[in-house]
Amino acid sequence: MKKRQNVTIKGTKDGLILRLDDFCSYEELIKELDQKLSANTNTHEEHQLISVKLEAGNRYLSEEQQEELKELIRDKKNLIVDEIVSNVITKEEAARQRAENEIVTVSKIIRSGQVLRVPGDILLIGDINPGGTVIAGGNIFVMGSLKGIAHAGFFGNDDAVIAASNMRPSQLRISSSLITKPDIPLDEQKEMECAYIDENRQIKVDRLQALIQLRPNLTRLEGGL
User: Fold this and answer.
1) Interhelix angle 26-41/63-74, nearest 10 degrees
2) What is the pTM assigned to this prediction?
């Protein structure tokens, strides 16, 4: 009877993919991984750095186990772990992801000196006055005047957008991109506008209807007529 492999190695143009069995014990996994990597790295030149992706399947790996795996692989000299993928996450991680995907609705005026932060999207029914700040991990939608500071995509989401009924910000930030007092002629402010990052990583302001083409995945609801 053929022995079950706890570790399978697949070579790609980008490096190696290591698939880890999620039924065996962690000790068996580490032992076989060490043996196979030792044999595999002998076939490569020492100066050739190889990227490694670990696929853990339905196995949960603690932070300590992840570090142990990374160290084991680093010890092979020419291997480096780029990514560890698992189908299992902790309750804390699930709660964080849920919060980042949640739309928070707030009805108030953000006055000078006030800062409002949310982990996901925010729908603000009210104004952001000069000196007021709204920071969101996702998108920012303002049903009112935006005259202060808005920072969307705070955790590095370049696809985040900022929309407002009256777009007159002192500063707009999306991810790591920033623009101060975008040039919007007063006579052109007749409808809701949106800000987004273009292909050159510059923040641009356009009419709200442009989001349909710019961010087709913005709608999260499925189905309908």
Assistant:
1) 20
2) 0.60
